[in-house]
Amino acid sequence: MLNRREFFHSLLSYGKQKEEKLFVLPPYNFDRSLFYKSCQECQKDCIEACNRVCKEGIIKNNGEYVYVDFGIDGCKLCGECAIACPNGVLEVKEEEDWKNGANWNVAIVIEEDLCIAHQKTMCYTCKDICQSVLGISNAIEFIGLFYPKINQKCIGCGMCIKSCPSNAIGIVERGNV
Ligand code: SF4
Ligand code: SF4
Ligand code: SF4
Ligand code: SF4
């Protein structure tokens, strides 16, 4: 499991140990191998599309393929990167339900040992952000006043990650489903 600090460190040291690093791949991909086959020679239309919809685009290029940097911001799940991709690497399949069809390669988790709420300091920052995305019935559940957990409703947008004051929200690899 990588916490946010380790995640960004992993991006910086990617050149040295790329086989061990976990990148957040852009949403709407259903065959991870396509990133390695098609991105290098592409004009990176997905980056351009994301730059148009976000204040600062969150899709970046690591020289080999593209990845999402949740340290900049979360993903709006707008689908524009998939619409722009000319090579079928990104493709919106569930047009009626873009949020649930993102198919991220990572899942978002709270690392309990870093979370200040788990140490009994009141903090609802991540829940407030999640509520702004998903509404009142959001993906961060508290057990009592403390002990938040991310539940199945999480759409992987990453909006909560940079909001956490203790870098307790991280990513773990998710299967290619
Ligand atoms: S537009 Fe598609 S093929 Fe091109 S870099 Fe982005 S994901 Fe890869
Ligand atoms: S879905 Fe939208 S915000 Fe998310 S990476 Fe694609 S273009 Fe950027
Ligand atoms: S990544 Fe999941 S838990 Fe975090 S704001 Fe988005 S939906 Fe909520
Ligand atoms: S914002 Fe961070 S520290 Fe606060 S409750 Fe959420 S995970 Fe814990």
Indicate the overall shape: elongated
Cofactors, ions and other ligands in the entry? iron/sulfur cluster
What is the total number of structural domains? 1
Hey, roughly how much beta strand do the residues contain? 5-15%
Summed over residues and divided by their number, the pLDDT gives a mean of 88
> What topology, given as strand order, has the largest sheet?
1-2
What's the alpha carbon Rg, rounded to whole Å? Answer: 16 Å
Number of β-strand runs: 6
Q: Which bin fits the share of residues in helices? A: 10-25%
Low confidence ranges: 3-19
**What's the end-to-end separation, in Å?**
19 Å
- Helix-strand pattern, N to C? HHHHEEHEHEEE
* Secondary-structure class: alpha+beta
Q: Largest sheet, if any?
A: 2 strands, antiparallel
Task: Provide the descriptors you would attach to this structure in a database record.
single chain; 177 residues; alpha+beta; two-stranded antiparallel sheet; two-stranded antiparallel ribbon; 6 helices; 6 strands; disordered N terminus; binds iron/sulfur cluster
Explain what this protein looks like in three dimensions.
With about 180 residues, the chain is an alpha+beta fold. The chain has one domain (about 5-10, about 20-175). About 25% of the residues lie in helices and about 15% in strands. It has a two-stranded antiparallel ribbon. Strands 3-6 form a two-stranded antiparallel ribbon. The chain has a two-stranded antiparallel sheet with strand order 4-5. The protein is elongated and about 50 Å long. The structure holds iron/sulfur cluster (4 copies). One iron/sulfur cluster binds next to helix 4 and helix 5. The site of one iron/sulfur cluster has 13 residues, from helix 4.
